[in-house]
Design goal:
19 helices, alpha/beta, binds 5-amino-5-deoxy-1-O-phosphono-D-mannitol, Rossmann fold, 34% helix, 3 domains, eight-stranded antiparallel beta sheet, Glutamine Phosphoribosylpyrophosphate, subunit 1, domain 1
Amino acid sequence: MCGIVGYIGKEKSLPILISGLKALEYRGYDSAGIAIFSNDKIEIKKSVGQVKILEKVLKDDIDLVGHLGIGHTRWATHGIPNEKNAHPHNDCAKRIFVVHNGIIENYKEIKEYLQNHGHNFLSDTDTEVVPHLIEDFLKDKKDFHTALLDTLKMIKGAYAFAIIDSKNSDTLYAVKLSSPLVIGVGKHENFLASDPSALVGKTKNVIYLKDGEIAEITKDNINITNLEKQKTHSEIVRLEWDLEQAQKGNYPHFMLKEIFEGPEIVLSALRGRLKGKENFVKLGGLEQVAEKLKETKRLIILACGTSYYAGLVGEYLFEEIAKIPTEVHFASEFRYREEPFEKGTVAIAISQSGETADTLAAIRKAKEHELLTLGIVNTVGSTIARETDAGVYNHAGPEVGVASTKAFISQLIILTLVAVYLSKSNGHSKNHALLQELEKIPKKIKTILDRSSELEKLAEKYKNCDNFLFLGRRYNYPVALEGALKLKEISYIHAEGYGAGEMKHGPIAMISENFPTAAIVPQNSVSEKMFSNLEEIKARKGPIFAIATEGDKRIVSLANDIFFIPKTIEPLEPLLTVVPLQLFAYYVGTKRGFDVDKPRNLAKSVTVE
Ligand code: M6R
């Protein structure tokens, strides 16, 4: 949450900061601000709302010509979104300017202490204590680096800071603990961002700052030390994302572009990993722990939101294909579990961003219990990718739309591959049908996308509903949850997802002619039971919108509206059934007039717990 950018180099920093902030806007868009070292002093500008409003404010500002600057896009935690709470924040003397991602837990005590020592605060934020603390420590004639270290020793919580000091026009300071920060390495210029997507098109070489590291960045040098002032080892990682992937192209929204990337996403998740004819799955990322994995007795999947729902599909896949008992936990709840972990338990974190604070905390707990940890992560080099013992990357490219779509598809593919990899039958003909069918999925997704106009029409019909129920069974139960999440996230329609078997235990009370149900009912081992549920809904005059298999005649008499999908095998059905639900949510959201790429109150990367 919150986006941070920084620049020092040969170019004017303003356009670089603005384009970085736009790329990071999915992390927060309550307000935005920049501070630029210009004409021997630091100029600061802030505005409420999206970065484009800040851009307008800055348009005629010809004084902002400096080559060193920091910027921020905010997702409010402490203090409402207004100009005074927008970052950057500064000290009393307007010497030190700070942007922050994270939460300073003990800010109240520090603020009180500083106020008693004469500091004047302008905002309600936790962040503002930081420039004032540095200022306070500088009073003891400390150098800036030492004052910064003393500040870090005093604050508790999670943070990523970018800091500039008006007494030093050559240095950009970056510090992190538990919140991500990445340095983009350029030629006679260096960049800083809370997420590598802000660096796409600027540099491909990045350094991920580690917890407790302080970087002093000049245009030609990056000096990274720890809290003991010792130099640390930092590796330059090569980013594989390109500019085209990070831009909307001809699509009106990132969300639509990302849904339409579905077939390509499946191909790139499979590339080099599937030896179809030999019935063999090869996962390079797991090779180093292959021996340990042979002893797996139980799997625990840890994730949040859409990644959690992918994990629920994974539970069915692992139990059916790999025959390994599996359970899925909300990462945010995992910490409260006191269960004993037997030897042979493996924890798998699923995360698109690789930075979700709850998932990271859950993985850290799993490590404390000495579990082997694996990551299914999209963002190369992200914290979860680095902190897990081994893992498999999604290779889905940057996902910019706040509502996760293509990441879900790629997570399902990777989970299927991991399930086959962990099964005793990897390389045996038993998996032949599954692996052959996997290769057909991109074309099948394409046939769904080609008929997106049907979903647009259905969205027109249902766009004014106040409520929606989503039902599915077995592999499609998690898809019902995901369909409901997508609709509520971007259209603000109240939607609930249920396992269809649970319907009679409560939700059926809500069914009426004004309460439609989206039923995921492809022809499979549970369709008879699904049909019975639909009869019950129909008997209570509930409108039904069904996702069904091409050629299914029985659904015609039951459902008011039907979207047909191609036939596939049951474990792979979610790869097809989720696509119409993503498109449906997209069209409902846009028809209701909302900015679906930036839904209210949400942020793409949830880096606070
Ligand atoms: O980056 P992660 O996959 O760890 O993010 C997890 C959730 O925050 C994310 O899936 C969220 O629920 C999305 N808004 C769903 O569309």
